[in-house]
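The records we work with from here on pair a chain with its fold. Taken together, the tokens spell out the fold as the letters spell out the chain. The record below shows the convention in full.
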Amino acid sequence: MKTSLTTTIFLNVAALVAGAPAPTSGDPSHASSTTPDLEARGDTINGMHYCGIFANADSSDAAALVSSLGGDKKKDEYSIASHGCKRVACHNTSGVYVCNDNNHKITVSGASVANAAAYINKHCCYAPSASGRGGYPIRSGQQFTQWGWNVAVGYANCNDDVRLRPADARGWGVDPGTCAAQKGLTNANSNY
């Protein structure tokens, strides 16, 4: 049976929406039940990225949120329960989420979140048709890390519970436009 690229993308998106865990690096230091010190792990992100899989964020708002996480909030710490998600930044109809695929609670810094979100911010939804309301650009994507957690950028209602998963945030059509679904391996954040 011949599988088309579109079918493959839809199956991968379906697995993400269903909550399939991201692959982990197998690093034994990540297997402890204590909260890992992610800041000491460095800046290099190695993991899959997916674009266009959630309802859209406004690109300008998303960029400002990521910039703030890497700037004035870089030392802020965010705890995420085992197999949970947390919206760590929100403005208007845009949010940044961290999801934990590990079997233990994690704590990540704003700087680590911003670093993981950098690929989404720079590459997802850049196409002539990827513009939202009033012609403003849109943003939607997810970046997995080798440490068993991932960052998503997409639609958010800032009044919703911060533990709401990005796939459950609804918002389809709020920041309308088409963000081409794509995926790939982000290796060492070098594909800029």
Remarks:
- The mean pLDDT is 75.
- Strands lie at 46-51, 57-58, 77-80, 85-91, 94-100, 106-109, 138-139, 141-144, 149-155, 182-187.
- Residues 85 and 164 are 7 Å apart (CA to CA).
- Residues 36-186 form one domain.
